[in-house]
Amino acid sequence: MATTVLRVRLVGGDRMDITCNEPGISDEEELVEHVISTLAQDSGALRTKHGDRLVVLYSRGVAAIEVAPRGAVT
After folding, report:
1. Which of 34, 49, 64, 71 is the most interior residue, by most CB within 10 Å?
2. pLDDT tens, position by position, 13-58
3. Domain that includes residue 22, residue range
4. Backbone angles phi, psi at 73, to 5 degrees
5. CATH of the domain at 16
6. Where are the alpha helices (H) located in 1-74, listed in sequence order?
7. Cα–Cα distance between 38 and 30 in angstroms, integer?
8. Which pLDDT score is estimated for 67?
C-alpha cells in the first residue's frame, strides 16, 4: 500500500497537510496520479487523514495540491 503526504491549498486560501493511502496501489507515483485524476472530476471525493482525523476532500474545494520531493527542500 502506497502512502504519501500532500499539501492541499483550498479555494478559501487555507492549506493543510494530509496523508493519502490506497490499499490497491503499491507505487507512490501511481498514487499521486490517482489523486490528480480523482480531483480532476467534478464530483471527485478523496478519503484522506489529517493526523488521526478522517478528512474527505471534495474536488470543488481544492485550488492546488503539492507533493513533497524526496530529500531536503532547498
Report:
1. 34
2. 999 999 998 889 988 889 999 999 999 998 999 999 998 999 999 9
3. 2-67
4. -90, 125
5. 2.30.30
6. 28-40
7. 12
8. 87
